[in-house]
Design goal:
Elements lengths: L1 H55 L4 E5 L5 E5 L5 E7 L2 E6 H51 L1
Antiparallel strand pairs: 1-2, 3-4
Helix pairs in contact: 1-2
Length: 147
């Protein structure tokens, strides 16, 4: 009898450890999705800003913030020219439309990654539910064996 109780307890401990692991995985995936969402929002704001600057046109004066308490006045020289980071600290000069396409491609890649992470969360939730069900069943078995 004591041997069976020890086996149930050990199994419960194993289930609880596994359950905590899935919960930690879900939290990590959520944090990653939050970072992706922030990046997507930033990229969409960049697209809006580039479009506004292009619509203002060449020769318009603008104010550029250079910190929390300072700004400088600048003139739009060529709104068709956009310098964009292409990775590894390398930047390239692209035409306005090419830059927008490049940014949109990056947004699409981030959205695909977010989708796969969301699917991983769904799978982790399913595993969590299965483990909770097994824990309940073991608890019921333990309760019956005590009677």
């Amino acid at each position: 009898m004591a041997e069976k109780k020890e086996k149930v307890t050990k199994t419960m401990e194993d289930l609880n450890k596994e359950l905590k692991g899935y919960i930690a995985q879900i939290e990590a995936l959520r944090a990653e999705i939050a970072v992706i969402n922030e990046t997507i929002t930033e990229y969409r704001n960049i697209i809006k800003t580039l479009n506004v600057l292009k619509n203002l046109g060449k020769g318009k004066n603008i104010i550029i913030p250079v910190g929390s308490i300072a700004s400088i006045e600048a003139k739009i020289e060529d709104p068709e020219k956009v310098i964009i980071d292409i990775g590894a600290g390398i930047s390239a000069e692209l035409k306005h439309e090419e830059a927008l396409t490049q940014i949109a491609t990056q947004i699409a890649a981030l959205e695909a990654l977010r989708h796969s992470l969301e699917e991983a969360i769904v799978e982790a939730y399913k595993k969590t539910e299965e483990l909770l069900q097994r824990t309940r069943e073991l608890g019921q078995e333990e309760g019956k064996s005590k009677k």
